[in-house]
Amino acid sequence: MPGRRKEGTGHYYAALQKPHDYNVQGSTHPDINLSSVLSANQAAKNHHYDENLRNLLIGSTSAARYRQLRLDTGITKPSIVSGFPSSRILALPGVFIADLFHAGSINLTDLYFPLLRGTLECDRTDNRDLWDWAVFRDSAVWNAHGAEVANTRRYLPGSFDRPPRNPAEKLNSGYKAIEFQNYFYGLGPGLFYGLLPDKYWEHYCKLVRGMRIVHKRSITSEELVVADKLLREWSTDFETLYCQRKASRLHFCRQSVHGPVHLGPETVRIGPYSNVNQAAMERTIGNLGQEIRQHSNVFANLQQIALRRCQLNALKAMDPSLMPERGLPRGSCDLGENYVLLRARDAQPFSVPSSEAVVLRQFVLSNNILCTQAWFNKPEIERWARLRIPTLQHARTTWKESERSPENQRISRNVKFEQCGRIEYGEVRYYFLLRLTPNEPQQGFAMIARYSSPDLGLLQRSHGTLWSCHHLEEEELEIINVKTIRSVVAMIPHPHRDGHPELNGRFFVMEKLGLDAVSMYGEADSQDEAEEVDS
Asked: Given this model, what pLDDT does residue 134 score?
């Protein structure tokens, strides 16, 4: 894609739209249609690259001719990757896949926050007072927003990893990629609503929805079509909303603005990006470094550590029995299909409160469960405190979490579950076992307090990213089979927003980005197995 040079500089920018009153030599080509750039298939791109490389190598008869061909082709020399056997790699340039980890967590946030804070470079011919999107230029607004982000910590389950710190204090001092993910793609739609002008907020939500989909390990074709459409719209609309065909704002058009449009087609070509995410390499670099013990000869020590790990991995691959399997914790109850009830557990039967007893009786009657009249009049059950689900998260309960002090909580009792093909959300009060028929094994059930249906207007305007609802508490108690639970989620209270009284008392849903991929690495829950005791 040809770039556009900013007058008086040597920098070219990836701008699709030609600025108004713009006449810079070599950059005056008309608007570029993004779809036409993406329409070429990979075989055509590979052939085009090979032809360009051949022209560079054969046609560079002089230094001046080499400089011209380098400019025309964008190639300076053969890649070192060309030395690999062609049957062992994807052809160039297709071997260089997009970088989802850095692009999503670092590059895009490095563009967005300077824009919203009004700290991005501003040309002499531009005026920051015209930047109506820069809502965080006001330090009071930015500090208040930072406190809102920090205050969400107790609502984020332990399986969500590191909660984002106050960005007003920590954004430029070691903010981690996982913090950006939880903040920008998780909390953002709810916390930015009412702060960002509507057109910018709705535009931002397109990016969030698209990135949430492409971070998944399992993606349906319908989801991928939605993600591709939204990411293309976000990319082209970015220039319309922020650059506004002003040459003074060409530097807004970083490569990261158009990078996401490749994620849809590339997912079709190579599979979900969570499987080739650079996070695995980052993690390997980190934990290899942690194993260094001989600091007087660091690289030799690191080489031996890496060699030993490769040898062990090869042995485990040849004989999987060498990999010890982690057994279930003491006192747990395996329900099958990777659902496991975990302690704490009532030592004596618990007398169910009246509001919950009504629901339990209705459940017994509707399922024709045999029980004594005495039990029916005064139900008693043994409660369980935790449930490990197939995502390897631990879904906890109000029963045990309410015993902790608020400052030590990471609330993990809100769950996403599926009923009759519909997605619902609820707060688990406790788990229990029940035998539906005398000849069947016991099954696991959860007493939950449901959340309401979402605000459909907000859900639609946010492109499906902001599920805003009420906690129904005693009004909508329900018993569900634990095997309908799909994941542990965060329910974040909507912060106060002037002009939006309808948000008071409401919660919005936050799910962990790429949760199904995280479970590949083992236990997704970071809290201690032995933290709870029987009562």
From this structure: 97
Of 146, 181, 188, 138, which is closest to residue 161 (Cα–Cα)? 181
Please report which helix (H) or strand (E) contains residue 384, including its range: strand 384-388
CA atoms within 13 A on the CB side of 20: 6
- Which residues are 507's β-sheet partners? 469, 493
Confidence class for position 529, pLDDT limits 50, 70, 90: very low
Cα 115 to Cα 147: distance, rounded to the nearest angstrom: 20
SS3 per-residue string spanning 16-49:
CCCCCCCCCCCCCCCCCCHHHHHCCCHHHHHHHH
Selection from 38, 52, 54 nearest residue 1 by Cα: 38
The answer on pLDDT for 408 being more than 80 is no
Instruction: Return the domain boundaries, the chain.
Output: 333-531
**pLDDT tens-digit profile of 302-326?**
999 999 999 999 999 999 888 877 7
Tokens of 220: 């349906």
- Taking the C-alpha atoms of residue 85 and residue 75, their distance in angstroms, rounded to an integer, is 21
Least confident of 137-151, 261-275, 457-471: 261-275
